[in-house]
Amino acid sequence: MGIPLGRKYWPCCLFLLAAGYPALAAGAEPTTNPATAPASRPSAAIDGFRLWACPTPPATEILPDGESVPPFIFRAPWAVHDTAAQKTFFVYTGILATDGTSESTPRPAVMTALFDHQNGTVTRPVIVCRDTPAGGCPEPALVLDEQGYLYVFVSNGPGQPSHIYRSRTPRSIDAFESIFQADFVAPQPWYIPKHGFLLIHLQPHADKNLVCFSTSPDGLAWSEPQPIAALAAGHRMVSGRFNHKVGVAFSYEEQPGLPTDLFYLQTSDFGSSWQTADGMNMTLPITEPGNEALLRDYKSMNRVVYPKDMNFDRAGYPAILYVSALGPQFKAPRKRRVWYIARWFRDWEITGLITSNHNLDAGCLHITPEIWYQLFAPTDPGPQPKTPGGDINVWVSADRGRSWSRARLTADHQFNHQDVRRPIDASDDLYAFWVRGDARKGTHGRILFCDSKGQVFILPEKMDTPVAQPERVTFQQ
Question: Which of 94, 227, 434, 452 could form a disulfide with 210 if both were Cys (CB 3.0 to 4.6 A apart)?
Fold first, then answer.
């Protein structure tokens, strides 16, 4: 028997602070709306992995000469490795046809699949959510609870309802049910054992997006979104978890499309209080740039800041991966887009030696038990110039980013590779996901991954059986 379902709407116009931002009243308990969610049904299987090309929202970036935002973007899967089951579950936005198959038609759907580490096979993807706006770009994220239930958080973008789905049985993708509807953007959910869910997300408010968090003991009853930061025109953010600690790093947009400065806050008590890295308690929300959460002032340097990933070392110290470059007022020949790592140990230490070709290049940071850094990113130019992505390299540092050695993973003469993401608690044989495709035309979206040895694989575009082995890919250097 499934658990009772509830659904609740976060009111967009609830103002509990004098500044006019939504907040959770002190001592308020999360509640649910007694309305019953739709009954679950078995998820329809799709015959292969093909990525939806997300249309790029207009006027979202201000970029320098020689750099452009493509008409489309491809997003890599959000993945979680379940050590107990020896499986990696992942969600992504695929292509859905009216007959339920996966074809090149203009309708997206949120899909899930799993990689079985015992036999090295991937299942056919199945549909979690097909009720997405036509021409839109659903953004899914995934987390597992202590019992192994899968929770899929789906944002449909500002002004569209977002949903949370729950698997009917633990560690199974056979059927999902809608358990919650709300209004959040860019969801980053974390499960804290013995406490519940802490969701970091952006919350639309007036003409900006606030960095917010919400909590739930069971995924059904949620607190109202409480703002962490409400600066200027909006924010870019990443987050991460280490045991009971959740950290969030963010920049803010002084004007739309120009993110700058870098901030960091963390909580170790399920959002009851928030501190800087050195333990100073902060009053939320942050509304002014000059505060103790400011890690580095980039505004005074005329530099833009794009957070990419955040990880923790074995001692629980955060490391933030981000790209920074001179602002668009500087001409392209003077611009170096540098990958930086800000690492905390008694103070912030910032290193940056690796360069890239586009502000919107996206990569991920692994930290090994020996505290070796492994940066996976498209740092070589690809065949589609002036757009995000290129060829993927893995950069390895044994001295916390002061020096690096490089190994090239791809050498593609047709498509850019982009948006490298690491599974949560990644295993050696599925170490990083990314995508390839033609962002100018919105075609040929495919999912690739590599193991910790640097071997590259691609998920099958067409599957005639319920499971299949990913194909090994080699590139001529």
Answer: 227
